[in-house]
Amino acid sequence: MQSQGTAPLLRWGIAGAGAIARRFCRDVNQYARGGRVVAIAARDQGRADEFARELGLGLAYGSYQALAESPEVEAVYVAVIHPEHAALIRQMLLAGKHVLVEKPAVTRVADWDALVALAHERGLLLLEAMKVMCFPAMRALLQRLPLLPAPRSLRAAFGSAPPPVGKLFDPALDGGAAWDVGVYPLWLYAAFCERLGLATQAPEVALDRAPGEVDLAARFSFGGPFSAELGAS
Length: 233
Description:
This protein is α/β, with parallel strands linked by helices. The protein has 8 helices and 10 strands.
């Protein structure tokens, strides 16, 4: 029961029952003050039931449409593989749900523009889950940035060394360094531009990949008054 004058908890559902979804569920239900995960949805009812038992959720749906139609859910965290994000985001927005989507939000700029327009039309929130933007150190840096001498350039890179198997190394699933870790330096550059009142530009992109394979390294070069050399591997 809510005390008088306290806003009700935002009721979350999760689309996708993988490892990141489990971590999101545990963290929200253990630490968040304004929200509570109440439902899980997967393509398979058995997988949803297993997730619900493990995490103590009362609602388990064997389809994403059932989650979209649930009157018990107000916001959805989309945690499926990223080539499937766009269609699932649209499905949830059309059902009147706010959406938080795992990075990268989509794989085509036109898809994101259309989804943002749909969210505005429906009066809903659509956000990409870029956790580094919520780090206290990052918030402090962005707050101080306009008070410092204007930066002229940025060099940043993000790399990891996962085993060469699975979705990150599958071209059919848009795997590769640019999609997996390239989003982090790109977000940093975009955040700096937004804080400095500068328009972001389209970068020159170079991908290191063999035919039929994903990119093992990516480079993004931005010109203009605030230039950037960004890397991912």
